[in-house]
Amino acid sequence: MRVLHMSSEKGWRGGEQQLGYLLQDLANKDVKSILAIRRGSALEHFCRERRIPYYTLKFSSSIDLLSAFEINKICRNEKIDLIHLHSSKAQGVGVLSTLYGNRVPMVLSRRVAFLPGSNVFSRWKYNQKQIRKILCVSERVRTIMLKFIYERSKCVTVYSGIDLKKFDNIAPDKKFLVEEFDLDPGKVIIGIVGAIDAAKDHFTYVDAIARIVNGGHPVQGLIIGDGPLASVLKDYVQKKLPGENIRFAGHRKDVGRLLISLDIFLITSKEEGLGTSILDAFLARVPVVATDAGGIPEIVKHEQTGLLAPVQDSKKLSDNIIRLLTNNALRQMMIDRAYEFVREFSREETSSKTFKIYQEVLGK
In CATH, which superfamily holds the domain spanning 2-161+346-362? Predict the structure, then answer.
């Protein structure tokens, strides 16, 4: 089976990690993966390091006709059986390649929990007949897409997975965190992991930490990640909570080492397809407090695997954290249940389900 994976993303976030896992696992299933990716992207570096064959395209927009023409040529020259579309611009370019005669069947991964645009092109690109299946990362995403897709049977849920062995050789090391970021060793460390953008809503995270600090509880925040709103967020922190209560770790390659050493993981997203960083926290045995955005409630079961609060409700979030600070039995129970629950979300299970969908689409 020869599969062309298309991604227009420049950076490395959850979707790219899922693609990375998939490429490695498909290699064990007699699948030849070839990539069409953006020039200078993190995925190009990933492919070069692992000697995965790839082509680079501009992906200047969803209607990049030159890139669409190139896709048609790649499919013909590489004898591609199936195209897997992993991002919005890649999807646009992929379906536009049909205008040049490309007849290769396609599957689409949908990782965000909001409706696509309502314009004519958007309607066409999601309902294009060569897209045979839409792989939704949660039931919430699938429910949203059912409102938009004419052929509803195309939408299936394939949960994202994580590497269940990723923390096997990493031990919690709070001393490292304290020294690395000049934290107070006597305070609880509440961390957040993710791109600093509008969807992740770090501003509510800051508000929640401020409420807890102002309430006299010995806590401090650690923001792991970078993004377009980083400088705005730093200004907001200084205004809302002056002093040394929140540190910025920036982009880190050792996120696992930081995550496993946190006392509490707080995620304040306004939009979230599923939230693999939550699954990582479950595996790392770090208790989770989260908003009920998108697919999050499918993995954070309130008072079982974590504590939930409404989106942008900093008071409820802070109250939930205080519950964890003052109720050790609840905290330990949730850690244990989450650790068992996360076993259902292995990368191998995700890859296996994806491969079966490939076979179904190709009639094998």
Answer: Glycogen Phosphorylase B; (3.40.50.2000)
